Amino acid sequence: MSIDTSSSTPNAQTKRLLKDLESYYKNPLSFIQNLQYSVDKEGFNQLHGILIGPEHSSYENGQFAFRIKFPLEYPFKPFAFFFLTRICHPNVDSETGHACHDELISSWKPQISISTILSKMYSLLQQPDYNKYYGEQIVPDKDPETARQWTEKYAKPV
């Protein structure tokens, strides 16, 4: 897949991201579909795609649209990951879709690749952290059965 950057000269951040994407496209992840690069109206690099829910989880076969927004300081500062499809998950803000992966963010290193980011987010669906809710709020309805119901309602293909 080619990426059009002809509209402007890529900065160091964009070059790094595009290099990482090129590597990803050579070895794509089976649970990611339609991964695309774009620049938002504020000029931030972002990726969009579909994450397929892991087998034997409350999210099994769900199709979860996502957006990864990269700060201007990337790769020295971590990304922000947002589910665009509604998802019931203890580590995701139900209103904004912002996912919190404490381990990945707290141990952030510039060498972490797009594939690693996507794999870690997939693993978050495989093993939600029910001891640490997004924003430290305990939300009793973010249980596996409710997650399964939301997956059926919001994340199944039409």
Q: How would you portray this structure in words?
A:
By secondary structure, the chain is an alpha+beta fold. The protein has one domain: Ubiquitin Conjugating Enzyme (Roll), CATH 3.10.110. Helices cover 28% and strands 18% of the residues. It has four helices and five strands; from the N terminus they run αβββββααα. The chain has helices spanning 12-26, 102-106, 114-126, 144-154; strands spanning 32-39, 45-52, 63-69, 80-83, 98-99. It has a five-stranded antiparallel beta sheet with strand order 1-2-3-4-5, covered by helices on one side. It is globular, with a radius of gyration of 16 Å. The chain starts with 11 loop residues before the first helix and ends with a helix. 24% of the residues are buried.
Give the SSE layout.
Elements: H1 12-26, E1 32-39, E2 45-52, E3 63-69, E4 80-83, E5 98-99, H2 102-106, H3 114-126, H4 144-154
Antiparallel strand pairs: 1-2, 2-3, 3-4, 4-5
In short:
By secondary structure, the protein is of the alpha+beta class.
CATH class: Alpha Beta
Output the helix-strand order.
HEEEEEHHH
Q: What's the shape?
A: globular
Strand content: 15-25%
If you consult CATH, what is the topology? Ubiquitin Conjugating Enzyme
Whole-number radius of gyration?
Answer: 16 Å
Instruction: Pick out the low-confidence regions.
Output: none
Pfam families: UQ_con (PF00179)
Protein name: UBC core domain-containing protein
Domain UBC core: 12-158
InterPro entries: UBC (IPR000608), UBQ-conjugating_enzyme/RWD (IPR016135)
